[in-house]
Amino acid sequence: MVTTDLKTVSIFIHGVSCEPCAAHVKWVLGKVPGVREVNVEKTNSHTTVDYHSSQASFSRIISALEERWYQVGGFTGRDLEVLREYLPLKTWKVKAY
Predict the structure, then answer these.
(1) 8 by DSSP, 3-state: which?
(2) One-letter-per-residue 3-state SS of 31-52
(3) pTM, to two decimals
């Protein structure tokens, strides 16, 4: 049986609605060690991030965005489990879709 540490998180990033913004988000998250792939949907500001949990963490991904002044919002239901690792570090409103 092959196991993998690959995880996927879907993040709502406020204000990402144009190609330059989407490219910047991809660049910012691409700099995080362990991030494998970033897909940004400009029409609804959702970003999907595939990452290796042995190299990157959800909190590091969120921190990378916040360091660049992006406001991060809701997460999909399956991502709320991943979110638990970040909640002790910061209190914020989370909207599950």
Answers:
(1) strand
(2) CCCCEEEEEEECCCCEEEEEEE
(3) 0.72
Domain boundaries, the chain: 6-89
Q: Do 50 and 5 touch, CB atoms closer than 8 A?
A: no
Instruction: Assign a CATH topology to domain 6-89.
Output: Alpha-Beta Plaits (3.30.70)
Q: Which residue, 71, 89, 72, is CA-closest to 9? A: 72
4: phi then psi, degrees, rounded to nearest 5: -135, 150
Per-residue model confidence as pLDDT tens digits over 26-54: 999 999 999 999 999 888 778 999 999 89
3-state secondary structure at position 79: helix
Three-state DSSP class for residue 13 = strand
